[in-house]
Design a protein that fits this description.
Number of strands: 16
Structural class: alpha+beta
Number of domains: 2
Strand content: 25-35%
Distance between the termini: 72 Å
CATH class of the largest domain: Alpha Beta
Order of helices and strands: EEHHHEEEHEHEEHHEEHHHEEEHEHEE
Strand order of the largest sheet: 1-2-3-4-5-6-8-7
CATH topology of the largest domain: Aminopeptidase
Number of helices: 12
């Protein structure tokens, strides 16, 4: 007999249908480079010369155009390219010299679905492996998510283009798969590797970009070359952290409610002893996700723990360790504390610092047993904070 039951099919989460903004022909300004609307008269001659030296075949190998026999052919193509709204081309201009050292575009712009792609990326030797090269991709991603309001940012490249695939992962894009026989480019088959970054992933990607770009991440000579970095961007963008046989994962805004819930229940019990609201319960967690590393430990029924870290110039601050009630007594607190130290070593920080309320004697004793010593006591208007530090081996 036919069933009278109504079958409910999964149809996806309800989302905001407000369209994103289209990118405009306006500069996007940075510290090392600026992205400015491409003007062939202004940017063409220098870019042509820089992209047609001894490395020209490698520079143009995976682009749909170029290299060019002469400047006239280059100018013809780029004069038309500069007029298009999609792809919308920007010159990457070195701030120190005012010279165009590359270009990149926004393309396949879909405001209704809030999806946009970055592509047609050309880096000349002057831009390759520099802070400016990484900053250009940071500026474009930040503009997409924080100004224009897109929910998905795409990166696609020839599946044979190993440097581009490595770059996508380094910048924090996730690999999604290969589209076989996707295109014919310059008379050759192109299988296309697809990568994406989502709006809920962006805050932690931004933390990684900004930590990498910080002057403190480079040697005292201020060298531009990536080889002088202290912590690689790929490491700063790490999605997992292995500690004592367990795996913490990098949180995204999809975890926001769960993170807040763990923080609330973990710190609420300190109110009576402190006489004031615990510091982590005063935070705006949207800002926390945008400013600090947030790591979570998954359990059978949700999150077992939350670890909040702040990478600073000469140390790593363990800003918060929170364990869910269901995981209490299982060694999760020890694991999270150890995870902060593992992360500090990986990022080239040999000092780990943390703080706790002065009335929380049990916390202070625990930290002492773990090798932390008191550096100072800070008198604040409503509380006293005990600052502790540990020098790692």
């Amino acid at each position: 007999m036919p069933s009278d039951e109504v079958q409910i099919l999964p149809v996806g989460d309800v989302v905001d249908v407000t369209p994103a903004e289209r990118p405009a022909r306006e500069p996007i300004l940075g510290t090392h480079v600026d992205l400015v609307p491409f003007d062939v008269e202004v940017h063409g001659p220098a870019l042509h010369a820089a992209a047609h030296g001894p490395k020209k075949e490698a520079i143009w190998a995976y682009l749909p155009n170029g290299p060019y026999e002469d400047y006239a052919a280059f100018e013809t193509y780029y004069r038309q390219a500069a007029l298009r709204d999609d792809p919308l081309m920007f010159a990457i201009v070195d701030k120190a010299t005012g010279v165009a050292v590359g270009h990149a575009t926004y393309l396949r712009i879909d405001p209704a679905n809030r999806v946009i792609e970055v592509g047609h990326i050309l880096y000349t030797p002057a831009l390759m492996r520099t802070r400016g090269g990484t900053e250009a991709m940071y500026l474009m991603a930040r503009h997409v998510f924080e100004v224009l309001g897109y929910r998905r940012y795409e990166w696609k490249c020839n599946a044979l283009n190993a440097p581009s695939r490595r770059a996508a992962l380094r910048y924090g894009f996730r690999f999604e798969g290969i589209f076989r026989h996707h295109m014919i480019v310059k008379g050759r088959n192109r299988d296309t590797a697809w990568f994406s970054m989502l709006a809920e992933e962006w805050p932690q990607r931004a933390v990684a970009f900004e930590s990498w770009l910080s002057p403190a991440n480079f040697d005292a000579e201020g060298r531009q070359a990536e080889g002088r970095q202290i912590a690689p961007l790929g490491l700063l963008n790490a999605e997992t952290l292995e500690v004592e046989g367990r795996t913490l994962r990098r949180a995204s805004l999809a975890d926001l409610a769960a993170v807040e819930a763990v923080q609330q229940v973990a710190y609420a019990r300190n109110r009576v002893l402190l006489g004031v609201e615990p510091v982590p319960l005063l935070w705006d967690y949207l800002r926390v996700f945008r400013a600090r590393e947030v790591w979570v430990l998954d359990g059978e029924a949700g999150l077992d723990g939350v670890l909040v870290l702040e990478l600073r110039d000469d140390d790593l601050l363990t800003d918060s360790i929170a364990v869910s009630p269901m995981a209490q007594g299982g060694g999760v607190g020890n694991l999270l504390l150890a995870a902060g130290e593992v992360r500090a070593r990986a990022l080239g920080r040999l000092t780990v610092r943390l703080y706790t309320g002065e009335p929380l004697a049990a916390n202070i004793h625990w930290y002492r047993r773990k090798g932390y010593s008191i550096e100072r006591v800070e008198q604040m208007p409503d509380r006293r904070l005990v600052h502790m530090a540990k020098v790692l081996d």
